[in-house]
């Protein structure tokens, strides 16, 4: 059996509890696999231990959950792995930010040299300190209406210039630029660099936001960074930054982390993008899609115009095919004879009516003349009447001494009645002494 000797380091004595193969020398070094196996054997002698901490990462994969625990009273962290068999015995609502106690056992993977802890049990202690603060801030901002959809500003259809706040030489910047330029090659950016984690994150982001919001050429602002555990994303849940974003005059897009990351900036921003790549797709329209839409609309418009023109042409041809429009003077020609006949009949009727009227007038005139007293007087007769105009028809109406008026054919004479005469032969002029 091979004996192990501590690795000789010039000027230092090997530690008494070293697990390194003790027979290794610079001329005969041990292999990495042998070293890892030695470490694994040493670690396997450790027992399980209960630890308290806050879940800062929680990724569910096939067969296991890979997570990280942060010391509840410091910055130390460990990586943990929970197999599905153990996960089934734990609370189903475990998530990032939960304050928990877990039974962990150290595990070393010799092939990759990875060190982690396997979890056999875990239970809640309460909300993590950070999560508790964030939940209180979330409730306060929601009560103030900063999450309301009504206050969120719409994004422009095609921004002339996009303001980008991100880390210098970061993958997020490359993703936004690349995907935006693929969708719309003429897109322009104004990029303001800021620390995306740590103490400088909030003040630098605030300053960059202020500059971009005041720039007249910027139409929309994107705040982007890659993924990370909740600890590194805390700056994007800072109240100062959240209120500045809410007060910005231009729409702000939050593109922080990956799909599962959810800082409070996502709720306050006018639009939440799941990733920086998604932000580029949401802010900039796809030129290919727009061209396809324009082509489709042009095709539809051409089809509609063609149909309308064809319909109007058919109607026009139908109207032109009618006899009245095909030969407009035909109706006049066919009606000319009718008009001439009607005019001729009207003229004949009018002439006959006039002739009948003249004949009737002559007859009435003759009758009137025959019945007129003037005709009688013209034949030598006279009309005797009193001064009152009463015509005398009986001699007794004019006793002797009665003054009378005698109307002749030409003029009238006055006379005085001598009374009724005895009957006897008379002359045509009478026997009266009228006029004496």
Automatic annotation (TrEMBL):
Subunit annotation: Heterooligomer composed of large and small subunits.
Function: Bidirectionally degrades single-stranded DNA into large acid-insoluble oligonucleotides, which are then degraded further into small acid-soluble oligonucleotides.
Residue ranges with Polar residues bias: 426-436
GO molecular function, one term: nucleic acid binding
Provenance organism: Microbacterium paludicola
Catalytic activity line of the entry: Exonucleolytic cleavage in either 5'- to 3'- or 3'- to 5'-direction to yield nucleoside 5'-phosphates
Pfam families in UniProt: Exonuc_VII_L, tRNA_anti_2
Keywords, in A-Z order: Cytoplasm, Exonuclease, Hydrolase, Nuclease
Enzyme class, UniProt record, top EC level: hydrolase
Keyword rRNA processing (UniProt): no
Domain called Exonuclease VII large subunit C-terminal: residue spans: 146-361
Keyword Cell wall biogenesis/degradation assigned: no
Any one Gene Ontology cellular component term annotated for this protein: exodeoxyribonuclease VII complex
Alphabetical list of PANTHER family matching this protein: EXODEOXYRIBONUCLEASE 7 LARGE SUBUNIT
GO biological process: DNA catabolic process
E.C. number(s) listed in UniProt: 3.1.11.6
Localization of this protein: Cytoplasm
Record InterPro entries: Exonuc_VII_L, Exonuc_VII_lsu_C, OB-fold_nuc-bd_dom
Recorded family membership: Belongs to the XseA family.
Protein's name according to its UniProt entry: Exodeoxyribonuclease 7 large subunit
Region of interest: Disordered: 1-31, 415-436
Listed NCBIfam families: xseA
Domain OB-fold nucleic acid binding: 31-123
